[in-house]
């Protein structure tokens, strides 16, 4: 099934000039970028995006980090794009991520883990329109 998923190349990676290398890993996996832009999130945008985590102990630190510098947000399309991108990213904690994954290769720690991807079709359906209008997504 052809799906779309939402991706963030996070501030730790953009700050180290790694967005090109990370997008190459995404493209090499066969995922097609159908929308992309660079943003610098406000505190309100980051709080809204991660609202599902608002009661977790790491929430305030996560929000501060996500606002600490620019991100590259994109929409990826392809066969089983959600699961495929999660495979390309590796486990949330880079210490547990498989060799060759984005997080194993580049992430600094469980918070500064270089990338985000939707975890299910329902989250992709919420996350994509949070940052992109229909007009910004190419067919
Ligand atoms: P992400 O996949 O974007 O989803 C939530 C984010 O919270 C996660 O990546 C990390 O950047 C951050 N985070 C920080 N600490 C934790 C933790 N203990 N468990 C899960 N996510 C964490």
TrEMBL record:
Q: What is its EC number?
A: 2.7.4.6
Q: Which reaction does it catalyse?
A: a ribonucleoside 5'-diphosphate + ATP = a ribonucleoside 5'-triphosphate + ADP; a 2'-deoxyribonucleoside 5'-diphosphate + ATP = a 2'-deoxyribonucleoside 5'-triphosphate + ADP
MF terms in GO: ATP binding; metal ion binding; nucleoside diphosphate kinase activity
List GO BP terms, alphabetically.
Answer: CTP biosynthetic process; GTP biosynthetic process; UTP biosynthetic process
Q: Which GO terms describe its cellular component?
A: cytoplasm
SUPFAM superfamilies with a match to the protein in the record: Nucleoside diphosphate kinase, NDK
Cofactor dependence: Mg(2+)
Q: Does the keyword Lipoprotein apply?
A: no
Q: What sequence ranges are listed for the domain Nucleoside diphosphate kinase-like?
A: 2-139
Pfam families, sorted: NDK
Q: What binding partners and quaternary form does the record give?
A: Homotetramer.
Family stated for the protein in its record: Belongs to the NDK family.
According to its UniProt entry, what is the function of this protein?
A: Major role in the synthesis of nucleoside triphosphates other than ATP. The ATP gamma phosphate is transferred to the NDP beta phosphate via a ping-pong mechanism, using a phosphorylated active-site intermediate.
Protein name as it appears in the record:
Nucleoside diphosphate kinase
What species does this protein belong to?
A: Desulfoplanes formicivorans
């Amino acid at each position: 099934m052809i799906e779309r998923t939402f991706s963030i190349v996070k501030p730790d990676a953009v700050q180290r000039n790694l967005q090109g290398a990370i997008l190459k890993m995404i493209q090499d996996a066969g995922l097609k970028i159908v929308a992309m832009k660079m943003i610098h999130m406000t505190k309100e945008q980051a709080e809204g995006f991660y609202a599902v985590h608002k009661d977790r102990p790491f929430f305030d630190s996560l929000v501060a980090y996500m606002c600490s510098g620019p991100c590259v947000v994109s929409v990826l399309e392809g066969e089983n794009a959600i699961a495929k991108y999660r495979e390309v990213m590796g486990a949330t904690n880079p210490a547990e991520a498989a060799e060759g994954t984005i997080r194993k290769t580049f992430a600094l720690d469980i918070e500064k883990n270089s990338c985000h991807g939707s975890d299910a079709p329902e989250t992709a359906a919420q996350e994509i329109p949070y940052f992109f209008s229909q007009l910004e997504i190419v067919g």
